[in-house]
Amino acid sequence: xxxxxxxxxxxxxxxxxxxxxxxxxxxxxxxxxxxxSGQLPRDHxxxxxxxxxxxADLDVDQAAEAARWCALNALAVIRSNLGTIDAxxxxxxxxxxxxxxxxxxxxxxVIDGAxxxxxxxxxxxxxxxxxxxxxxxxxRGAAVEIEVEVALR
Length: 153
Hints:
31% of the residues lie in helices and 24% in strands. It is built from three helices and five strands. Helix 3 links the parallel strand 3 (88-99) and strand 4 (129-135).
């Protein structure tokens, strides 16, 4: 089954895409790889999903849902640049940032929301390396931001 067909089977509709401001690109393609710029958790209308500080305003489940939206946005910009997500051979890495309250240490559980989505769509090819980093603030008050790097066919 193609990855595009898998999206349909899962009932997933990609938001956006929401490109970054100049002089940035949403995706850089080089040497058989594609890497996204940071993707925020935007819904189909472009609104942030669960903005705020994880461990203060939001719990882990809400933040993991935001991370899932980040992954959907990453797939949207990849599709926009490549024409299809079927051009992806496998997911290589995810870099996740979580706006964290002091003492909050469950950043990996938050970024699991993005990792699970990528595994659902790409199956074994969705397994990847990952970092989950706590930060004081993210653009527009987002709770989560991710970057995704994929190998291309």
